[in-house]
Amino acid sequence: MIDKNKLYEDLERLVAMPSISGTDQEVTAAVKIEEMLKELPYFRENPDQVMRVEVKDDPYGRFLPAAYLKAPVETADTIILTGHYDVVDVEEYGRMQDDAFDIKAITAEIGELPIDDSTRADLESGNWYFGRGTADMKFGHALCIELLRYYSGQPDRKANFLYVGVCGEETNSEGMLAALPFFNEFAAQNGLRYRLLLLTECFMLDGAEENVKYMQYGASGKIMPMFFCAGAATHGEEPLLGLDASLMSAEVYRLMHLNTDFCQQNHGITTAPPAGLKQQDMKQTYSLSTALYAASYYNIATISLDPAETMARLREVAEEAFENTIKLVEKRAAQMQKLTGKAPAVYRAEPCVKTYNEIYDAAAQKYDGDLAEYLRSYAAELRKENPELQDISVKLVKKLYEMAADKRPMIIVSFIPPYYPDVNVDLKDGDTAKMLSCADRIADYAREKYGETLKKSEYYGISDLCYTWLAEGMNFDDIFDNLAGLNSVYDFPSEELKKFKVPGIVIGGYGKDLHKYTERLEKHYNFEVLPDLYIKYIDMFLE
Predict the structure, then answer these.
(1) Which of 194, 236, 382, 417 is the most exposed place for a label (fewest CB within 10 A)?
(2) Sign of CA dihedral 299, 304, 307, 309
(3) Is the pTM value of this prediction over 0.85?
């Protein structure tokens, strides 16, 4: 079985290696994981089975540590072990920031910070380890390493194991997006069939029942539609002679924010309505001109996204916003006429809505050269200023509009990164059905042996599990083709994602307050129970 003392030693070493997202600390952490993998006897004897997966064109030079544990008898059957090794920052810890990565130190000191009654009760129980990354999710990597140690010592293991640690999950999932091409290529080179993916995160569930642990499969997702508004500028003292892009953008915002038409329902769950994340004009300096350009983008949670239907609905919003803006301008002009007794000169606009794909094609017709390469170069220049992917995407749409022949006022509908597909399990798939059947059996085992209550839950949440299975029968090109910055600022392997289909599950560890300074990991369940459940589950699945 797995040695709990060794598991804790691994956890302590991993937590002690800071790996804050979007910093070169992620590289240092990957090197540490690689070092720990090479300490395992199997990989000391087979060092070529520990690999580095490059994150292409990464500003930090990140890579993914990977390890392949081959079965003694040739088989295609392979189980993927994975999870992210990056963590959120430690600013919340205040004067204890340096100790946030020292489990013993922060557990001893955390009571000096303001903590609620529940946290204090856990602290005083002595049954919890505190520290950044304990629950999210260095414990998961410690468990992966010890599972590899255990199965490397099992001469009758019936499957191969492929471990890949991914970076950037807390930012834009750059690690998992880099892993997808590797998974497909590695399987093709070695004749593998991926049967199951185990994401070793702690379970996540709002309102979880007390004393219940969860096994979660499938994933909720998110899209971020962006509306780029191009108006007709005019002097601020003659506002009716132009069309203010900010006015159009404000109307889009009014129609999109909290619009329940975009809520989705599945498995008795209803998603939250869209939230406006950012609204901006694009004037660089003060001037007495109305805004020529403005943009806004929104978060839409998904659990059963139909890409074509969603794009059609977003276009309808843009069209309605444009028409409403024209009506408002006409109303204001009529009020001016009533006030002055003469009809004012008014800029007359016709509603015009295009998609990102349409404006890209229009720009390509005008551009004498490789437009995709030009955009990559342009995005690279923008990235030197280190702006966010979302800001670069907005500027790319602006550049395409400027390059296209059509300079009418218009609203351009696109999506901006990151994109997380939702995953609903396919019960017609044999391995998926087996994954769920084994979850039922492991729940019985946990209850009988440990007195633990485990329940299944349909959605894990936004995570790397989102990139494991695209729904059948949906035209995801409606999203991919309209993803601003695709393959220029956002390396999203759309074709690789279409090919990668593997049932995934989180047999969750037990932690609390992820992303807070009170982040903590429960001792008993994670060290005494969960390792055994993983081994039993894997062995059941491979029966």
Answers:
(1) 236
(2) negative
(3) yes
